[in-house]
């Protein structure tokens, strides 16, 4: 008998006062579904309206480890805009190949309260590894991402652009400002798409979708950018095949990935890191031309416009004063026609207050010294306690040994006293005196002799 199994959870604007979570704009439904006959068909409705559903297979190693066939993850995003205030039902339906269905139902409370657009609760925050410049503007991670989009921006002028793994859409906005005819961003994380759509304008579109199954016709884009995504995907050949499929003849793919080991902190979101040689080989297998570059991170000092002139866009020339740093990322262009020669570019992080850094370093050193002294004192106290315990343990062991010897002595004395109190047995009777032959003959004749000596 065919079975189908699902598991779902909701992410909404705010929990609400009771069992019904409160919804104002969007409902995100995440979960998985499984059937032994293959991935079931999934539909999600919110208040009777169909929702965008993006199915995606789990990592093959996880699926294989469970040993129950392909498990199908999914995420759906449903809009509640325009629904009347009050309860609305969210229905997730998974249908197996033979028509057997399983439904999950949940009621949410729709509100028309506009709330605050800025600073409102965002339940998806922190659930994925995607940069949001509003969280850490000017950080090194921020400018590393910005530098890649700035480097690619000249290719966007007059082009139809796809930003694959667009996140919250900051890069798509940069490409749009660079003169793109249209920019489409796609990401599998519904929370990021919600954020991106809130800031979208004409010429910008953001779609919830799977990079391994792009919802676009062949030859749809002149430029495809896919920054810091390939290391998140195990099926990298399939990803690159999809990215090339949607490129028009003469189109360009811009792609990047971190250099394995260059960043000491392990990233659990990276399922298949590749080095620059592997990236280049994957691209050469599909494109006639590949231009591989390195991306470095370093401190900088800049002279730009006069005070009061506003922020400036700093362009090359830039010089290395002590040689390039170790590269952190591999960045590449790929296409079937000759590639444009893009100039080196970069982006500057927020200014560094060296004095503050030095002070912080000294303060940290003082804290470490205090911590070391405290740990040393704790260690000495622990050693003293251990010595006292061992001494006490030895003392108790000696006392126990004395008690044991005394008990054994008392037991031996009691045994001896008990033995002395038992009376001696009576002596055995003397053996009978044997009768002579005369006595035996007389006894037979019945003659009794008293005081007479019988002849021998």
Short description:
It contains eight helices and 16 strands.
Question: What does this molecule look like?
Answer:
There is one protein chain. The protein is elongated, with a radius of gyration of 45 Å. It is an alpha/beta fold and 456 residues long. Strand 8 and strand 9 form a beta hairpin. 29% of the residues lie in helices and 24% in strands. The protein starts with a strand and ends in an 11-residue tail after the last helix. About 5% of the residues have low confidence. It contains 8 helices and 16 strands. Among the domains are: 106 residues, Immunoglobulins (Immunoglobulin-like), CATH 2.60.40; 208 residues, Vaccinia Virus protein VP39 (Rossmann fold, 3-Layer(aba) Sandwich), CATH 3.40.50. The longest helix has 67 residues. The strands form 3 sheets. Strands 12-11-10-13-14-16-15 form a 7-stranded mixed sheet, sandwiched between helices. A 5-stranded mixed sheet has the order 2-9-8-4-5, with no helix packed on it. The chain has a 4-stranded antiparallel sheet with strand order 1-3-7-6, covered by helices on one side.
Which CATH top level class of the domain at 140-304 and 313-355 fits? Alpha Beta
Individual helix count: 8
* Beginning-to-end CA distance, first to last residue: 123 Å
The count of DSSP E runs of length 2 or more, i.e. the number of strands, is 16
- Beta-sheet strand percentage? 15-25%
* Oligomeric state as shown: single chain
CATH-assigned homologous superfamily of the domain at 140-304 and 313-355: Vaccinia Virus protein VP39
CATH topology of the domain at 140-304 and 313-355: Rossmann fold
């Amino acid at each position: 008998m065919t079975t189908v199994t699902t598991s779902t959870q909701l992410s909404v604007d705010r929990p609400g006062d009771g069992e019904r979570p409160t919804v104002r704009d969007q409902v995100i439904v995440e979960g998985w579904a499984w059937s032994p006959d293959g991935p079931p068909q999934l539909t999600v409705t919110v208040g009777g309206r169909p929702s965008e559903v993006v199915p995606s297979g789990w990592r093959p190693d996880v699926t294989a480890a469970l040993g129950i066939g392909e498990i199908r993850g999914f995420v759906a995003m449903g809009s509640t805009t325009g629904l009347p205030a009050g309860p609305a039902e969210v229905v997730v339906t998974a249908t197996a190949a033979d028509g057997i269905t399983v439904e999950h139902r949940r009621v949410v409370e729709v509100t028309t309260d506009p709330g605050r657009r800025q600073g409102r609760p965002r339940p998806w925050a922190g659930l994925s590894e995607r940069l949001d410049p509003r969280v850490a503007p000017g950080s090194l991670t921020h400018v590393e991402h910005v530098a890649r989009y700035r480097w690619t921006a000249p290719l966007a002028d007059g082009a139809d652009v796809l930003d694959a793994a667009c996140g919250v859409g900051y890069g798509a906005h940069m490409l749009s400002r660079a003169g793109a005819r249209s920019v489409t961003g796609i990401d599998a994380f519904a929370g990021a798409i919600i954020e991106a759509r809130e800031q979208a304008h004409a010429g910008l579109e953001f779609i919830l979708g799977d990079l391994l199954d792009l919802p676009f016709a062949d030859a749809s884009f002149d430029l495809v950018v896919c920054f810091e995504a390939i290391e998140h995907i195990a099926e990298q050949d399939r990803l690159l095949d999809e990215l090339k499929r949607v490129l028009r003849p003469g189109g360009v793919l811009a792609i990047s990935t971190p250099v394995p080991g260059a960043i000491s902190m392990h990233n659990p979101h990276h399922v298949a890191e590749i080095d620059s040689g592997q990236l280049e080989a994957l691209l050469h297998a599909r494109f006639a031309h590949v231009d591989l570059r390195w991306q470095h991170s370093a401190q900088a000092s800049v002279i730009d416009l006069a005070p009061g002139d506003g922020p400036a866009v700093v362009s090359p020339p830039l010089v290395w004063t002590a040689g390039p740093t170790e590269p952190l990322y591999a960045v590449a262009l790929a296409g079937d026609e000759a590639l444009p020669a893009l100039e080196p570019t970069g982006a500057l992080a927020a200014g560094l207050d060296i004095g503050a850094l030095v002070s912080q370093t000294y303060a940290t050193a003082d804290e470490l010294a205090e911590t070391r002294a405290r740990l040393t004192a704790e260690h000495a106290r622990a050693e003293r306690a251990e010595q006292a315990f061992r001494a006490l343990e030895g003392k108790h062991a000696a006392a126990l040994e004395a008690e044991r010897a005394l008990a054994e002595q008392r037991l031996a004395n009691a045994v001896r006293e008990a033995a002395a109190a038992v009376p001696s047995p009576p002596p055995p009777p003397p053996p009978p005196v044997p009768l002579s032959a005369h006595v035996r003959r007389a006894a037979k004749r019945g003659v009794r002799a008293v005081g007479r000596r019988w002849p021998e």
